[in-house]
Write a structure and sequence with these properties.
This protein is α/β, with parallel strands linked by helices. The chain is 30% helix and 22% strand. It is built from twelve helices and 18 strands. Strands 1, 10, 11, 12, 13, 14, 15, 16, 17 and 18 form a ten-stranded mixed sheet that branches. An eight-stranded parallel sheet has the order 2-9-8-7-6-5-4-3. Helix 4 runs parallel beside helix 5, helix 6 packs parallel to helix 7 and helix 8 crosses helix 9.
Length: 433
């Protein structure tokens, strides 16, 4: 525990690199813990734009909202860390009661471990000797707990041989899949073959339970049927004595359908202790696109969400300058594909602010951006914003933009600033993609 705390606290003493983007004056190279003392304020133009910022109040709200939702169903949470790849944020999730952290690759697991995360679901197949070697090295720590998913006999045999040579036993989760979906066994015959392969390596492989990803499906009834298939399979495995790990696990739920998973799996029991673990990741910052649409559906259909009388809030924004007004009806923003996700919709102008100039003209606080200011396309470093020809815009004005799909936006930033409601910087978080 002392080592874990030291690794976690080491994040606070990492220096902010002056070669990064979206920072204030870092010529003195302050450490992360000293950011609050720099006195940076976004609206005073103390920070280089474009910048990615997290609202402290909204992040805290989202943490508490998801904890309350999960607790209401008596389930556990292992948020998907690939969303942010920020160990500082992982530890905030763990401090709020998360069972562990979900990750997608062996290097992601290694990064999380380096900063003190000690319980992980690797929600992906572990393929390749170098990747297996990473997990094997981490498993030399008896305090590290890791679960890996499998869906093929070939992969099971590769894992069985590798970890037998290492003298270790790897915990597995059998992944169920659907025709036309992503990974996962499609039918009973493939499932039986996989179970037989696992049983051939009793000393190096241990089956803990079932894993699914329901996000490849698109409607309520199909998802519920898939989730019930997972439960029936798990119960059969338990009855047949095929769960050989010390802990039984049933896990699923991305960020769009976690409500259905909670409804279907709450109350599922085995003759042995069972951890039912949900894995949404994007709830931490939410968005105004694909996950906002999912939230609307959840609040319309889920009684627990309705009873909470609150919603997840978009907590991640990008700020950029109006860089050019080259022709009527067009504004070019200093922000592009290098800064924001664009796979699930372009950023949405949310706030407009005009800094004070030497004549002390400007706006006192950000105001809502008009609904007819719309991003139409982005290039690497530029965004095209369509506006009315008489729009009140000037070069040097600042725009806050909401995003869709937090995962790919976080991926474009090595450092994000945390701000209070006055846009004063109170913290920073690093990412390790």
């Amino acid at each position: 525990m002392v080592e874990e705390n030291n690794l976690q606290s080491s994040l606070a003493f990492r220096p902010l690199t002056p070669t990064g983007k979206g920072l204030g004056d870092v010529t003195a190279q302050p450490v992360v813990a000293a950011v609050a003392g720099q006195g940076w304020n976004l609206l005073r133009e103390d920070i280089s734009l474009p910048v990615a910022v997290l609202s402290e109040r909204r992040v805290q709200h989202n943490l508490q909202w998801m904890k309350s939702f999960i607790d209401s169903y008596g389930l556990k949470l292992a948020p998907h860390g690939k969303t942010t790849m920020s160990p500082a944020l992982f530890h905030r999730q763990l401090a709020q009661g998360a069972w562990g952290i979900t990750l997608a690759t062996a290097p992601q697991v290694q990064a999380a471990y380096h900063f003190g995360v000690r319980r992980v679901i690797l929600a992906n197949q572990l393929v390749g000797r170098a990747n297996m070697a990473i997990i094997s090295r981490l498993l030399q720590d008896p305090g590290f707990e890791c679960y890996v998913i499998v869906d093929s006999v070939a992969n099971v045999q590769q894992l069985g041989e590798f970890f037998a040579q290492a003298g270790q036993r790897l915990n597995l989760l059998l992944e169920l899949g659907v025709t036309g979906g992503r990974t996962g066994v499609r039918d009973a015959a493939a499932c039986d073959a996989l179970l037989a392969a696992i049983a051939a390596y009793p000393h190096s492989l241990a089956l803990a339970g079932i894993e699914v990803y329901e996000g490849v499906l698109g409607d309520d009834a199909t998802i519920r049927a898939f989730l019930r298939r997972a439960v029936h399979t798990l119960i059969a495995l338990d009855a047949q004595g095929q769960l050989t790990a010390s802990k039984a696990i049933l896990t699923g739920a991305g960020s769009a359908w976690f409500d259905l998973v909670a409804e279907e799996w709450a109350g599922v029991t085995l003759a042995r202790p069972l951890d039912i673990i949900l894995r949404p990741g994007c709830y931490l910052t939410h968005d105004v696109g694909i996950y906002k649409a999912a939230e609307t559906r959840i609040h319309a259909s889920n009684p627990i969400a309705r009873a909470m009388h609150s919603s997840l809030l978009p907590a991640l924004q990008l700020w950029a300058y109006v860089q050019s007004l080259p022709e009527p009806g067009l504004a070019i923003l200093g922000l592009g594909k290098r800064d924001a996700a664009f796979d699930a919709g372009l950023p949405v102008p949310a706030l407009h602010f005009r800094p004070q100039d030497r004549t002390h003209t400007g706006t006192a606080a950000p105001v809502a951006a008009p609904a007819d200011w719309t991003l139409t396309r982005m290039m690497d470093q530029h965004a095209f914003m369509q506006v009315p020809v008489d729009a009140d815009l000037q070069v040097g004005d600042m725009l806050a933009l909401d995003i869709s799909h937090p995962c790919l936006t976080f991926d474009k930033w090595r450092q994000l600033l945390v701000v209070d409601d006055n846009y004063t910087v109170i913290d920073a978080v690093e990412t390790f993609f």
